[in-house]
Amino acid sequence: MDLIAKVEAVFHRRGHLQYGDERREPVTALEHALQCAQLAEWAHAEHSLVAAALLHDIGQLMDGGSTAPLRDDKHELTALPLLRAGGLGPDVLEPIRLHVDAKRYLVSTDPAYGPGLSEASRHSLALQGGPMNAEERLRFMTQRHASAALQLRRWDDLAKRPGMRTPPLGYYLALLEELLRDSHAPERLRIA
């Protein structure tokens, strides 16, 4: 089964689940993923970052994942082996890997950010280590994809609107397929 089919299967099997336990978000996992991808697209993000926006929480939906963790489930890491083996590169994988740290960074640097988080997001922040200290912030910001992760994080926080109209999953799977095809295409020699 190729990556596109695997991603589609995960969303069809568990995308209907709501986020959180008693702190439920007002959208399903699939609605959240589609909204996040749409926000990235509206911001004219590169296709790799739109793909990261779509897939950033898929680790919560994979077998053994939880949308209502009682401990840090490390969902930002769970799907990386599957996505990497499927052919996605660091421009997709690294923002996914860093999006939890981006929340921790923003809480520690932007006084207006924390109060704007949903109850479920504040709960998961506590499980994920809380605000970063100065050393963690420095380490985070020296990573090549930190800026992309911060953009993804902002969309992640906004992508929780009940009833928001988005393109269907198939639209973003086609974008993902195009991204995979382009990443496997041989470099073209330019002749001046």
Please explain how this structure is put together.
- There is one protein chain.
- With 192 residues, the chain is mainly α.
- The chain has a single domain (3-184), classed as Hypothetical protein af1432 (Orthogonal Bundle).
- Helix content is 58%, strand content 0%.
- It has helices at 3-14, 29-42, 47-55, 75-78, 80-85, 90-109, 119-127, 134-141, 146-158, 169-184.
- Helix 6 packs across helix 9.
- It is globular and about 40 Å long.
Number of domains: 1
**Number of β-strand runs:** 0
CATH superfamily: Hypothetical protein af1432
Under CATH at level 1, the class stands as: Mainly Alpha
State the major sheet.
none
**Overall CATH architecture:** Orthogonal Bundle
Unreliable stretches (pLDDT < 50, length at least 5) are none
Query: Termini distance?
Result: 41 Å
Query: What string gives the helices and strands in order?
Result: HHHHHHHHHH
Radius of gyration from the alpha-carbon trace, in angstroms? 16 Å
Our count of helices gives 10
Overall geometry:
globular
* Overall pLDDT confidence: 89
InterPro entries: HD_domain, OP_Dioxygenase
Organism: Roseateles chitinivorans
Protein name: Phosphohydrolase
GO molecular function: hydrolase activity
Task: From the structure above, extract its key features.
58% helix, hydrolase, HD_domain, Hypothetical protein af1432, Phosphohydrolase, mainly alpha, 0% strand, 192 residues, 10 helices, OP_Dioxygenase
What's the layout of helices and strands?
Layout: H1 3-14, H2 29-42, H3 47-55, H4 75-78, H5 80-85, H6 90-109, H7 119-127, H8 134-141, H9 146-158, H10 169-184
Helix pairs in contact: 2-3, 2-9, 3-6, 3-10, 6-9
